[in-house]
Amino acid sequence: MGYALYHFTFSSFRTNPRMWLEDLYVEAAARGTGAGRELMRAFVSDALAHGCHRVDWDVLEWNPARKFYESLGARPSEVDMIQYGLDEAGMRALAGKRA
Fold it and tell me: Residues 13-35: what's their mean pLDDT?
């Protein structure tokens, strides 16, 4: 029906454990059945059981799942941080390695 792929993280800035949801997937035929809500419920229950004070995940701006997450009470983070990253070309340049 679907899966939730997640792992632990730790905020050294806020000094607390967290959990990161890397991917939530529900098969098209199972969408609207409550499967996604149950996967999210299991995810946050595991986070709470492990003492996490927050769970986070990324959602692409165009993804219609944003409405689903908002229906669960999730909101975009309003933090003073901006996400940065390096793509493969940037990593190779920094590491001094050619493609």
Answer: 94
Is residue 36 classed exposed, middle or buried when 0-12, 13-18 and 19+ CB atoms within 10 A define those classes? Answer: buried
User: In whole angstroms, what is the distance from residue 70 CA to residue 65 CA?
Assistant: 9
* pLDDT reading at 99 higher than 70: no
- The model carries a pTM of 0.81
Neighbours of 30 (CB within 10 A): 14
CATH label, 2-95, candidates 3.40.630.30, 2.160.20.10, 3.40.50.620, 3.40.50.800: 3.40.630.30
